[in-house]
Amino acid sequence: MFKRIRDNREWYEAQNAGQAMMEWAQRQQFPEPSAAQPEPAPAADSASSPVAAPVVDDFLPPDLLSASSAGVTGMMMPWRRPLVVDGEVRECPHCGAYRNWVLLAMGNNVWRRCREGHETLDPDLDTAWFNRHSGPMEHNFGSLQEGLRHLGH
Predict the structure, then answer these.
(1) In the chain, what are the domain boundaries?
(2) pTM score over 0.90
């Protein structure tokens, strides 16, 4: 009997705490999202010039960016599936591998490393792309070789 009374009391306390949190959130004044700026119309004589890709700001705060992390010279992540950029499957120019990459972000450059150890700079990828596709950093390694060994390369 006492267990049921205690369980009911805990349930009601959790309900009351949740209700108080909902009421607090409703009282808060959150800023309105800014309206998207329309892109300027292309000029009539720009038909011969190539269309530039839209500039995308990096969405991560500066303290979480891979290029600006204190004491970190680079980051790496595994990429097991085929790497498709702009509709094109990337492959190693040396051995033809197209999956099971380790992507290395150093500075504003992203390097691909295949299973055979061939490293290729990918000019279409940058740190913003890396940050959008990588998860949180799980380990710190003293050297590139330690990180590659951890990832199985």
Answers:
(1) 65-150
(2) no
